[in-house]
Amino acid sequence: MTGPTHAASLLLFELRYAWRSLAARPAFSALVVLVLTAGLASALSVASMLNTLVLQPLPFAESDSLYRAGLIDNEENLDTDHFDAPTARDILAWQEGLADLADVGAYNSLTLTLNLSSDTHSERYAGGRLSPEVLPILGVSPQLGRGFSADDAKRGAAGVVLLSDAVWRERFGGRADVLGQQLRINSLPTTVIGVMPPNFSFPMREQLWVPAPLVGEESNYEVLLRPRPGVTPAQMRGVLESWMASELERDPVVTRARARAIGFDQLKYRFVDRGTISLFGVMAISVVLVLLIACANVANLLLGRQLARERELALRTALGASRLRLLLATLLQSGLLSLFAVVLALPLAQLGVDAVIADMRNSADEGPPLWMQFGIDANLIWIAVAVAALTAAVSALLPALHAATRRDLALRSGNHGGGNMARVSQWLMVGQVAFSLALLISTALLVQVVRQLERFDLGLDTEQVLTARVGLVPQRFDRPEELARYADDLLATLRADPAVVDAAVSSSLPGLLGGNEDVLPFGAPIPESGTSSPGYSAVDAGFVEAMRGQLVAGRMFTSGDTAGSDPVMLVDETFVEQFGLGERAVGSRFTLSPQGESPRTVTIVGVLRPIQLDDIDDQREASMFVPFAQEPQRFFSLLVRTRGEPMAYANRLREIARELEPDSPLYWMRDYSNVLREATIGQRVLARMFGAYGVIALLLAATGLYGVVALNVGRRTREIGIRRALGAAPRSVLGAVLKRTLLQVLLGLTIGLAIGLPFARLLHAQLGAIGMVGGGLSVGVWLPALLALGLAAAVACWVPMRRALGIEPTVALRED
C-alpha cells in the first residue's frame, strides 16, 4: 500500500493502538479524563456567559446602531455607564432637535407595577412603559396585533396594553381572540392590542407594556436613539450637547442642580456595563489558569505514563516504528482523552451556567433580561472542540517529544530515569502549585467579601420578619390621606393577629431597596457642588420599635405626628456626623428637596443609631426618616415580625391585604434573611464561581503532586529498597526522596504569592468599580489559601511515599 491508503491504514492502526493502551489502564485514563473535564467545564461555563453578555449582539435589528442618552450630574465622571433620567420635557426637546438625524424614543427607567385584576383574583406583573417610537427603533413587531400609536400615548387616551408571550399563554391560554379583550389593569379598563414575540422583554424583565405619555417634568424615562442613514454618533451627541449648553445658559442654577453634561453611549452598555465586562475579563484569566493547571496536570500524567513505558516504546522503535509514529500514537491518546472530556464537560458547563442564572433571576424584578439566553449553542460546541484539540496538543507536547527520543539505551539497560523529561515534569508541578495558589487567594478574597456583608450591621433586628411590597394605584387612592388610612388599617389588622409580634411600614426596604432625598440645612445656600442626598424613608410611628432600632437622643414619632402637625424627622448618627450637628442635632431644621417642585422644611426630633437604608454592599450612608402620615407613599414595604416561621404566615398576609384592597396584591414576599441574601447575590455568585475554580485548582494541584511523587517513588523503588536493606530509618529515606519535591512545592508557593496577590488586587479593584466593595488583602485572606494548598501538597506527597515505605526491602530490590 502506498500514498493515502497507506497513511489511512497507519492512522487507523495507531488509533486502535491508542485505544487499547488507554483501555489497558482504565483508572489512569479516567483520571486524565476527569482532570481535562474539570478544566474544560470551567472554561466553557465562563465562555457561555461571555458569549451572551459581551460577544453576541443585542437581539434587535442592527443593534450596533442603537444608542442611549441621558444626563450626568458630574462633569468629572463623563465615562460613567450610569445616566440620570431626563424629564419628559427634555425628551420632547431632544426629539425636536434630532428630528432630521435620528429616531428618538423613551422607555421606563424603573420597572412599573401593573396589577392585572379579574373578578376572582389580582396578580402583579413587572410592567414597562414605551413611547410609540421604541418598537420600530428596535425593529420588533408584535406577533399578534399592533404596537403603540401616537394617539395611544396622548394624555387621556383609552388604556391599551401589550402582553408578553408568557402572559398570553399562561393567563389567556394562547388564544388569538385575546386581541380587543377588555382587562382591568391598575383598576383602569384596558384593551389588549398586541402580543409580543417569545422571549421579548424590554428593557429588562417586563411582562406587560403600556404607552409612555411624555408630558411635563416626569423623569422616569431613558432615551433610545437610532441614527438615520449617514448620520454619525458624534452628530447626534453634538445636538444634545448644544441643548445642554443652552439649558445651562437659560437657567444655570436649576440645570446644574440636576445635570451638568450629556451621557451618550451604545445601548448594549445599558445591560452590561464596562465594569462588568472588565470583571468577566478577570474571570476569563482565572479560567485560563484552571485550564493551564489541567494541561500541566495531564502533561505530567502522560509524561509519567511514558516514562513507565520506556521499554515498550524502545521495543517498538527496535521493530521499525519511526519517531513520527510514536509521536502520532501519543497525540492520538491525548486526543481521545480530550474528546471524552468534551462530552462530559458540555453538560457540566450547562449545569453550572443554569445554576448561576437561576440565582440571578430569582431576585425580584432584577437579573438579566429574558432575551438573554445563556447556554451551550453550536458555536460554543465548536469552540469546545477547538479548545479540547488545543488542550490535547499542549498536554501531549512534552510526552510526544519524549516518545520521539532515542530508545536504544532504555532497551539495553531498562532505564526508567527519564532524564530531562523527569525534570520538566517537576517544573510543571511548580507551575501547577503557583497557579493554584493564585486562584485560591482570589477565592479567599471573595469569601471574605461575602462574610463581611453577612456581618454587616443594618442597625435593625431582621430576625423572624416577613416582608412584602405594596403598590397602591391612584385610581383607587387619589388623596394622600387615603394612602395613610390604608396603611393604618393594614397595620391595625396585623397587630391584632395573635400570630404577629409587631408590624411596620417603610417606603424603603432597609438593606436592599433604598430611597434618597436631597437635603439642605434650613436657610443655607445651595452649594456649587450640589446638595447631599442621604437615605430617605417614610415610616409609621411604630417602625423603630417594631424593627428594634435604638434611639440615642430626642424622641420617637408618635400618633400626634400627622399631616396637620409640624413636619418632623428622625436621623441617624451618620447623618449627624455628616452635617456636623453634634449635640445640637435635635431641634435643627432642614429643607427636603430644596430644588424640587415642593420643598418642605422639617425639624429633627430624634437621633437613632446608624441604620443602612440602601444596599448593604454600598458604603454606609446617612439616613433620615419622616412620618408616613406626613408623607404617605404609594409604594411601600410591609414588615411583619411573626411568632413562628415568617413564610408560614405568607398566605394569611395575602388574605388580609386582599380583603382590604382586592386590586393591589402584595408582591416580592419573602423572609428578611432572603432579602439580605438577594442584596448580596452578585457577590455570592462570584464567590461561588471563584470557589469552584479554586477547589478545582486545589484538586488538580494535589492530583499533579501525587502523580509526580508517585512517579519519583516508582523510579526510585530500588534505591529505597537498598537504603532500607542497609538499615536506613524511614525518616531519612523520606527526607532523601522528598527533599527536592518539597523545595519545588515551596518554590511554587512563592511564585503563587507573587502572582496571586497582584491578581487578587486586580479583582478587588474590579469589584469596587461595580459597587461590590469588600475588604483588602489582609493576611487573613492569603494565609488560609497558602495553608490549604500546603496541606493538600503534604497529603499528596505523603500517600505514595507511605505506600513505598510499606514495601519489603527484598521485594523492592527485585524491581527492574
Folded structure, characterized:
With 816 residues, this protein is an alpha+beta fold. It has 24 helices and 23 strands. Strands 14, 15, 16, 17, 18, 19, 20 and 21 form an eight-stranded mixed β-sheet that branches. A hairpin with a 2-residue loop joins β7 (182-185) and β8. α2 runs antiparallel to α20 and α9 (274-308) runs antiparallel to α22. The protein is globular and about 100 Å long. The two termini are 40 Å apart. Mean pLDDT is 81; it is low at 406-418.
Brief write-up:
This protein has 816 residues and is an alpha+beta fold. The chain is 51% helix and 16% strand.
Separation, N- and C-terminal Cα atoms? 40 Å
Q: Helical region count?
A: 24
Main pleated-sheet profile: 8 strands, mixed
Number of strands: 23
Look at the helices and sheets and give the structural class. Answer: alpha+beta
Helix content: 40-55%
Low-confidence runs (pLDDT<50, min 5 residues)? 406-418
Average pLDDT taken over every residue: 81
Radius of gyration: 34 Å
Shape: globular
Layout of helices and strands:
Blueprint: H1 3-24, H2 26-55, E1 67-72, H3 88-97, E2 102-108, E3 112-117, E4 122-130, H4 134-138, E5 144-145, E6 159-163, H5 165-172, E7 182-185, E8 188-195, E9 208-211, E10 221-227, H6 233-250, H7 252-258, E11 261-266, H8 268-271, H9 274-308, H10 310-318, H11 323-361, H12 378-403, H13 408-413, H14 420-454, E12 465-471, H15 480-495, E13 500-506, E14 515-516, E15 519-521, E16 535-539, H16 543-546, E17 551-554, E18 568-572, H17 573-578, E19 589-592, E20 600-608, E21 623-627, E22 635-642, H18 650-660, E23 667-671, H19 672-679, H20 681-715, H21 717-725, H22 730-769, H23 779-805, H24 809-813
Parallel strand pairs: 4-9, 6-8, 16-21, 18-20
Antiparallel strand pairs: 1-10, 1-11, 2-10, 3-4, 3-7, 5-8, 6-9, 7-8, 12-22, 12-23, 13-22, 14-16, 15-19, 17-20, 18-21, 19-20
Helix pairs in contact: 1-11, 2-9, 2-11, 2-12, 2-20, 6-7, 9-12, 9-14, 9-20, 9-22, 11-12, 14-20, 14-22, 14-23, 15-18, 20-23, 22-23
